[in-house]
Write a structure and sequence with these properties.
Number of helices: 11
Largest sheet: 6 strands, mixed
Structural class: alpha/beta
Bound molecules: NADP nicotinamide-adenine-dinucleotide phosphate, zinc ion
Radius of gyration: 20 Å
Shape: globular
Distance between the termini: 20 Å
Strand content: 25-35%
Length: 352
């Protein structure tokens, strides 16, 4: 084991603070990565504050972070995919059994024995996994992604969660050029959803509660922007969408969006609010509409998404912060005040 610098939360009510954590020594299949940037996902905040206590209670101390981009500094003897000096990415998963039907199909996100990047039982240390708010991480090569070298690294980090979480359901539900697609909530996930829907050629409509994000939405690739509190604007789109991606982090009325779907249209929830959402049956029944959820994406598809971003030069719009500003960033994220993802410059951890 070796000591790594990190930021952790000691309890649901504590701010994140500087600490030291033990990381495992490299096994033959492992890659050691010096972390350069780590995005701040709203899931980090849900988890740090134990807002998902019913589904995945937080084990403290908690080191969040699953939008990791860095440079390989050392590899185990059996590692063929990476060498020191390579760029590398790590998302929300760091291990799975590799043998179940889901893993065999490249759907590691559905593996019953999948290990999340943080707050999961750690098979190697016997403790809990620690995420990317840290100077380094040791990960099995199967869960390390190649990052296209033309991409801005601070903006590439959020692709590892916000990117794949929006790309995967859009591919699954057939977002292409003749489709009308909605994206609800212009945050970290939402703004990536807009970029992907636009790049895939769909007619893209953003639904936002923030009037001041209207111009940004158009710049990011939206064809139209709807203020979701405006009933008349909402009504104009009734029954017209093929697909809607709901990326809202808090309680909101999903029925209003279900009514905007055409026959057999689908709305997929990627946002994971703390409390259950109310669902009115008739919105789904009339029009045979469907409501789904979607978690991140498998490793092969994550690589595909990164390569797609490399080809189309897609990255997140980021505000780069030093790690010392992480608690302030959380407060701003709760107020939907981030344009559109915080990316932590991990060089700032060196001074701790
Ligand atoms: N399924 C998955 O695999 C997965 C992966 C990553 C994250 N998530 C979840 O996805 C959600 C979004 O994550 P994020 O990192 O994109 O968060 P974020 O950056 O905070 O964005 C959330 C957006 O939701 C909108 N919003 C916030 N409060 C609202 C309210 N009360 N009513 C209506 N809209 C509201 C805001 O957009 P406007 O200002 O435009 O209204 C806000 O920018 C979180 O719950 C996160 O845990 C899920
Ligand atoms: Zn995330
Ligand atoms: Zn498996």
């Amino acid at each position: 084991m070796y000591n790594a610098k990190a930021y952790s939360a000691a309890s649901a009510k504590s701010p994140l603070a500087s600490t030291t954590i033990a990381r495992r020594d490299l096994t033959e299949h492992d890659v050691l990565i010096e972390i350069l940037f780590c995005g701040i996902c709203h899931s980090d905040l849900h988890q740090v504050r134990n807002e998902w206590s019913g589904v995945m209670p937080t084990v403290y101390p908690c080191v969040p972070g699953h939008e990791i981009v860095g440079r390989v500094t050392k590899v185990g003897s059996a590692v063929k995919k990476f060498k020191p000096g390579d760029l590398a990415g790590v998302g929300c998963m760091v291990d799975s059994d590799g043998t179940c039907p889901e893993c065999q199909a490249g759907f590691e996100q559905f593996c019953p024995n999948m290990t999340l990047t943080y707050n999961s039982p750690d098979k190697h240390t016997g403790g809990v996994t620690y995420g990317g708010y840290s100077d380094s991480v040791v990960v099995d090569q199967r869960f390390v992604l190649r990052v296209p070298s033309n991409l801005n690294l601070a903006g590439a980090a959020p692709l590892l969660c916000a990117g794949i979480t929006t790309y995967s359901p859009m591919r699954h539900w057939g977002v292409t050029k003749d489709k009308k697609v909605g994206v609800v909530g212009l945050g970290g996930l939402g703004h990536m959803g807009v970029k992907f829907a636009h790049a895939l050629g769909a007619h893209t409509v953003v639904f936002t509660t923030s009037p001041n994000k209207k111009e940004d939405a158009l710049r990011l690739g939206a064809d139209e922007v709807v203020l979701s509190h405006d009933a008349d604007e909402m009504a104009r789109h009734a029954g017209s969408f093929d697909f809607i991606l709901d990326a809202v982090a808090a309680n909101h009325d999903i029925n209003a969006y279900i009514h905007l779907l055409r026959r057999d249209g689908n709305i997929t929830l990627v946002g994971a609010p703390e409390k259950p959402l109310a669902l009115a049956a008739f919105g789904l029944i009339m029009g045979r509409r469907s409501l789904s959820g979607s978690p991140i994406g498998g490793i092969p598809e994550t690589q595909k998404m990164l390569d797609f971003c490399g080809q189309h030069n897609i990255t997140a719009d980021v505000e780069i912060i030093p790690i010392q500003k992480v608690n302030e960033a959380y407060e701003r994220m709760v107020k939907s005040d981030v344009k559109y993802r915080f990316s932590i410059d991990m060089a700032s951890l060196k001074s701790e």
